[in-house]
Amino acid sequence: MPFTAPRDVELLIEARWILPMSDGLPTLEHHAIAIDGGHLLGPWPISEAPQHVRPARTLHLTHHALLPGLINAHNHAGMSLMRGFADDLPLMTWLNEHIWPIEAAHVNPDFVAAGTRLACAEMLASGTTTFADMYLAPEAVVPVVEAAGMRAQLCTPLIDFPTPWSMDFESGVRQTEALQARLGHHPLISLALGPHAPYTVGDESLNRLREAREHLALPIQMHVHETRDEVDQGLAKDGKRPLRRLFDAGLLGPHFQAVHMTQVDDEDLALLRETDTAVIHCPQSNLKLASGFCPVARLQAAGITVGLGTDGAASNNDLDMFDELKTAALLAKGVSGNAAALPAMAALALATRDSAKALGMSDRRGQLREGFDADLIAVDLEGLNSVPVHHPASAAVYAVQSRQVSHVWVAGSARVAASEFVGLDRQALLEEARQYEHALRPVAGNVTD
Ligand SMILES: [Zn+2]
Questions:
Q1: 109 and 133 share one domain
Q2: How many angstroms separate the alpha carbon of residue 238 from the centre of ligand 1?
Q3: How far is the CA of 109 from the centre of ligand 1 (A)?
Q4: Which domain holds residue 208?
Q5: What is the edge-to-edge ordering of all strands in the sheet holding 151-158?
Q6: Is the same domain home to 133 and 282?
């Protein structure tokens, strides 16, 4: 028995299983974890919890697994309104002939806010509590994320040509600086520099990016080696692979989040490892655009941090991280020819602990352990598709559907309870999104019948 009196806490959650995703903490059965002041206490065996805490309320989740809230490490949330707008196309045709023209014609702060509202609701309902976003008009995203009560790393979009947000690269950097000053130390939102890709950012801009990163002390998230064409064109234009060009510009490091990396040769692998650069894997987007396969098992074997993201709904076409981590697990096996590649627990780690590490948040998120942020989810494993449960990690990766997410807490506040939103109007979100079916149609000449 402890010598101190039990501590008063807001909530105690008793669960059939807890997957802490934490070093030194195995999968737990019949354990409890407490929430107070936005942080976690425990876990303890259910029978021992009264020795530690006196909860104002207790929730009994008798056939559920508790997990850390999922972390979607790469998204373009505002693009949710372009879901299904341009399918079955390769990356550059998709971007040049469809996405960039529609953005020039339609995207403004209202569009971005509406798309992000839809995205936040979809992500919360499917168990995501933190996401990295890279899209136009990040100022419009801030109040939407606040209203949804999620956490976000907003990557400001930096590119050499004019967009609805910035005239050029330099004006994007200046707007990033202004947004950073406005946000200060925000409890839910952090910033990153979001240069689009090596092929849309010239050498002068890369130098400016390095200066800005040093001055603003922000991480960088960038699409890198998304396709083989990108690498071939980089070789033809610069005489080196794009990752090497970023290294030579002094940009790689633990603060750098390289999204996609479907092309990895031995030198790339060495550069990633030596600089401790993180990779963000987006398997469904890569499959849909036929971009290639990120060699996750090979990267992990080399000690490289790999996080997981959905990419935007225009190339996925959903933001379902349970779906994504199952794809990641299956793809890793198919690509390596090894059924043991990316086993269930490692796939769950991609979407939790490893994504937190890739985004520089591993000291407070991505694991269920004492003192960490109370960002967690409950998944009801009592489904026809998920019983019997021989191991909750197997169920969560290979069998669960995201509609089995029953509870979501962010910073200790319930955002989904008993499978219903807390504070979001599902009907209003559906109606707002439907308005864009008509708004986008006149420009959507590619829609196939
Ligand atoms: Zn992307």
A1: yes
A2: 23
A3: 19
A4: 70-358
A5: 70-75, 128-134, 151-158, 189-195, 220-224, 256-260, 278-281, 306-308
A6: yes
